[in-house]
Amino acid sequence: MTRFAGARPRAVGLALLALASAGLAAPDAGAQEPFDLVISGGRVMDPESGLDAVRDVGIRDGRVAALSAKRLAGAETLDATGLVVAPGFIDLHAHGQDPRSNGFQARDGVTTALDLEVGAFPVKAFYAQREGGALLNYGVAVGHIPARFKLKHGVGPVHPPTTPYLSKGPRAAALRFLRRVYRPTGYQHDPADEAEIERLRALVAQGLDEGGIGVGFGLDYTPGATHREIRRLFELAAQRDVAVFVHMRGVAGPTDMSALEDVLGHAAATGAPLHIVHIASSGQARTPEYLKWIGVARKEGIDVSTEVYPYTAASTSIESAFFDDGWQDRLGIDYGDVQWSETGERLTRESFESYRRRGGMVIIHMMTPETVDLAVAHPRVMIASDGIPLLRGGEHPRGAGTHARVLGRYVREKRALSLMEALRKMTLMPAQRLEGFVPAMRDKGRIRVGADADLTVFDAKRVIDRATFEDSYQYSDGIVHVLVGGTPVVRDGALVEGVFPGRPIRAGPRG
């Protein structure tokens, strides 16, 4: 019913899956041994084929070359006895696109980190900065927010810096980017006339030409964007056969469904595939209704998907349009529910106004555990972190602990979903959401012969998140090995220094 719900496996793919499930290597694997690397004796769990069995995984030239119930020989072997071997986790919503943040993501099992909400502009510069120096696979959407900033202010580039934030200069550059994106200025509140809309459309088209993975919207941060402006960009995405990734517009109160109605209406009218980000933080008490109406829309042929992060607090910049007048009524919270990231203090009216003038990140305690639990367990909801750059500590922990938190707290402790279902939400579902227009994703999110050797090896009995709202600089525990393109980036629970196997992920021609 949807164009991008996942490519149909080719006949050869089905044959290889059958061989894998039977515990056999590829037909010529024996003649080509030894492999570059073997992951030996682990419990291989593949959501695509349903394989859940002890297997050796033979890796050659960055790809899975064999799955075997028999011991394989390799130039190097990682012992995975007693551990789960899963496809590498794919994060569709990762704002932390710098080396420091990538390290925390890798220790959380992530092998591909994509920023598909705020995105970047120009897209070409984003990719050029990371070429040859990335720990993880990386990619970005064409950002409506930064493209609109370019339109209104005529400056650029507008994209996250790659520096590791270890010195005052790079950290200042990162903060300038965040404030450029979030501080209320003309680009956020001023409507665009017809000529400006067409110029904006041309900018976004340029980003798609440069490989941008769809179009990202943060409508809560651009209240000046009219329905006409948004519709024209949805039309462009539909014409280019890419998806839109949308942080919905703010609402009037706890029962206002207009934000969801608006984006579903744009998707229905244009045919643009729609992905709604962080459904629980956008939905709050409305989340059950949101999920219900997303299901109805899918049955009516609208291509719509969504995601959640497993925390009861959100995070954003205090100076952004998100906190324009009336935010208490819109969000159903007050000053004491807002936490200043740098100190951990809960705010008062006075401190809120002072920090809003200064600018900076806050954590917003605004969701109930029941709301988050519902979204995490829902079969159509993917897992994505919305992790922000880890600049100085005190940031939201979701950028460091999302995936281990789901595995440890929701699978092992709460038993809210099975291990295979959790892995599907982190691997196969995001890969399938993109693979219709992002060719590289067809070989990610699964463990089969010929797939990319992006793999996460973890201890299901002890995997857990450690990052907290007060101390986000804590690695997840129980993620033992992580491979990107067959190269270990985490080995024996520690980051591997000096390796940069991450490759660019771009939209491309379908076929």
Number of strands: 20
Q: What is the molecular shape?
A: globular
What is the alpha-carbon Rg in Å? 22 Å
Strand content: 15-25%
Give the structural class. Answer: alpha/beta
**What composes the largest sheet?**
9 strands, mixed
The overall pLDDT, averaged over residues, is: 89
Fraction of helical residues:
25-40%
| Low-pLDDT sequence parts | 1-31, 161-170
> What is the oligomer described by this structure?
single chain
Distance between the termini: 18 Å
Number of helices: 18
Short characterization:
With 511 residues, the chain is an alpha/beta fold. 34% of the residues lie in helices and 20% in strands.
Question: Could you describe the 3D structure shown?
Answer:
The protein is of the alpha/beta class and 511 residues long. The protein has 18 helices and 20 strands. The protein has helices at 11-21, 29-32, 99-107, 123-130, 144-153, 168-182, 186-189, 194-209, 227-239, 258-270, 279-283, 287-299, 327-331, 349-358, 369-377, 398-413, 419-426, 428-434; strands spanning 37-45, 52-60, 63-68, 77-79, 84-87, 89-91, 110-120, 137-143, 215-218, 244-247, 274-276, 304-308, 313-317, 338-340, 361-365, 381-383, 455-458, 479-484, 487-491, 494-495. The strands form 3 sheets. Strands 1, 2, 3, 4, 5, 17, 18, 19 and 20 form a 9-stranded mixed sheet that branches. It has an 8-stranded parallel sheet with strand order 6-7-8-9-10-11-12-16, with helices on both faces. It has a 3-stranded antiparallel sheet with strand order 13-15-14. Helix 5 (144-153) packs across helix 8 and helix 8 (194-209) packs parallel to helix 9 (227-239). The longest helix has 16 residues, at 194-209. The protein is globular, with a radius of gyration of 22 Å. It starts with 10 loop residues before the first helix and ends in a 16-residue tail after the last strand. Mean pLDDT is 89; it is low at 1-31 and 161-170.
